[in-house]
Specification:
The protein is of the alpha/beta class. Helix content is 26%, strand content 28%. The longest helix has 13 residues, at 70-82.
């Protein structure tokens, strides 16, 4: 069992059977903008890292934790209990494509997801990480449909994904009743092309996209940027 301390506040435990903490989860937690008192559903929530990061930033949030891997759900339960947060979360173990395992229709104000990045026929991932990184179990459209089902009209859906799939994913969002409203690209350095993107979409929203300044993870000398340190909890999340 391994441990990380999040924002100097919560302890996060995980093991080799679940996807390890990654920059993607920290980026998503920093980008997501649920309002005070919102119910936040996470699709593919694993052991609860992104939820704990959000909980450290806003104490009034409640969570709907949705995850296929039963072992990851048990770890998440332990993480929430260890941090005194059990009363703020409900757990749903199973395939998000099955409505019967999801919370009720219109049950969430905000949905977050760190979905598989690559179509099932391509992408570099080990066998143990295939479900987390490749669309072998569910596609981005499956996740979008689940988000649409969970969200009330006017609710928001935030996710992190590969920048190369921007056009495709925006089409999927539009076809499922979402309007992309915020976009932030992520670069490893000033000289590299964007590799990741963070998008927030509005259910039943009107067109109109706001582009945030590009997030640089490292400066021209390869040093971690100040924003990267803040997001990655090397400095406290504001």
């Amino acid at each position: 069992m391994r441990e990380e301390v999040l924002a100097g506040k919560y302890r996060y435990h995980y093991d080799d059977a679940v996807f390890p903490p990654s920059t993607d989860s920290f980026l998503l937690a920093a980008f997501a903008a649920p309002k005070r008192g919102d119910t936040v559903a996470e699709l593919g929530a694993a052991a609860g890292l992104t939820e704990l990061l959000l909980a450290a930033r806003e104490e009034s949030l409640r969570f709907l934790h949705i995850e296929l891997d039963a072992h990851a759900v048990e770890l998440a339960k332990e993480n929430f209990a260890a941090n005194g947060l059990s009363e703020r979360v409900e757990f749903f173990a199973g395939d998000l494509r099955e409505r019967s395992i999801l919370p009720g229709n219109n049950s969430a104000d905000y949905v977050i997801a760190n979905p598989p990045y690559y179509p099932a026929e391509r992408g570099k991932c080990s066998a143990t990480m295939a479900t987390a990184r490749s669309e072998t179990e569910c596609t981005f459209e499956d996740i979008t449909k689940a988000a649409r089902y969970l969200l009330r009209s006017g609710g928001r859906f935030a996710f992190v994904h590969r920048a190369e799939r921007l056009a495709e994913l925006c089409c999927i969002l539009r076809d499922n009743g979402f309007a992309p409203k915020r976009l932030r690209l992520v670069q490893h350095s000033p000289s590299s092309a964007p590799s990741l993107m963070l998008i927030e979409a509005l259910s039943d929203g009107k067109p109109g996209l706001s582009l945030a300044p590009t997030l640089l993870l490292h400066d021209e000398n390869g040093r971690e940027s100040a924003e990267y340190k803040r997001i990655y909890c090397k400095e406290e999340i504001l």
